[in-house]
Structures are given as structure tokens and as C-alpha cells.
Amino acid sequence: MPHTVPACPQCGLENTYPDGSNYVCPDCAFEWPQTAQAADSDAAEAGDGIVRDANGNPLADGDAVILVKDLKVKGSSSTLKKGTKIKSIRLVDGADGHNVDCKTDLGSMLLKSEFLKKA
Ligand SMILES: [Zn+2]
User: Fold this and answer.
1) I need a labelling partner for 89 at 20 to 30 A (CA). Which of 42, 53, 101, 119 fits?
2) Rounded distance from Cα 38 to ligand 1 centre (Å)
3) C-alpha angle with apex 60: 72 to 52, nearest 5 degrees?
């Protein structure tokens, strides 16, 4: 038997089974709620609220960063060149992982932190 079903806390026998949101012991008819296990582990993995640069260093509002990759600017033929320094970024919760708001020579835009490194 998998260990996911605990022994009955009342009589200690292990013939217990899950029933809906409870565990049930058929030996003494005791029922108790299943505890939520690892319910928030996904959330913890998905994001701890920290925006990291290409090297995994945390970024913060006001940091200066350097592009580690040429980036085409959407809707134009311009390219932000690798090595471009950008001052005073602002962290945002943008769509598609665009989590850094910044002002560049080509205007204000949203970039992905994975293409930046802390200056
Ligand atoms: Zn029992």
C-alpha cells in the first residue's frame, strides 16, 4: 500500500482509505479530514516574486543592466544591441515573461530579465 493513507489516529489500524476529502477507518468508523499536502508547492516553484537576470542574480527597481543578446524591437526594424546599458529598470508583471520595464535609446519598452545582466 502507498504510504499516502495514514493509519487511523484513533485505533491505529491501517485499513484506512480516502473518501472524498476525508480518511475513513472501517475498523472503528473514525473519519478525519485529509490534510492538504504540498498544495502550494507549485506556486513556490512558479515564482518566488524575485526577478533574476541571465546569471540568476536578483534584480531590483532602479538597477542598471546590460543586454546579453541582440533584441529586435517589436514593430520596428531597430535592434537593441548586445552590450547596451540600460539605467534604472523597473520590475513589472508583464505578459509573456516581459518583466522589466526600461527606457532605452529607442524608447520605453518591456524586456525579459533573462536577456539582461546586472551592470
Ligand atoms: Zn480506527
Assistant:
1) 42
2) 25
3) 60
Question: 11: CA distance to ligand 1 center in Å?
Answer: 4
Distance 6 CA to ligand 1 centre (A): 11
Q: Average pLDDT, stretch 19-36? A: 89
For residues 100-108, average pLDDT: 91
Which neighbouring-strand residues pair with 107? 104
Which grid coordinates belong to 71? 533584441
Taking domain 1-48, whether its CATH number is 3.40.50.410 is answered by no
DSSP track, 20-57 = TTEEE-TTT--EEEPP--STTHHHHHH--S--B-TTS-
pLDDT in tens, 38-89: 444 444 344 567 899 999 999 999 999 999 999 988 888 899 999 999 999 9
pTM of the entire predicted model: 0.58
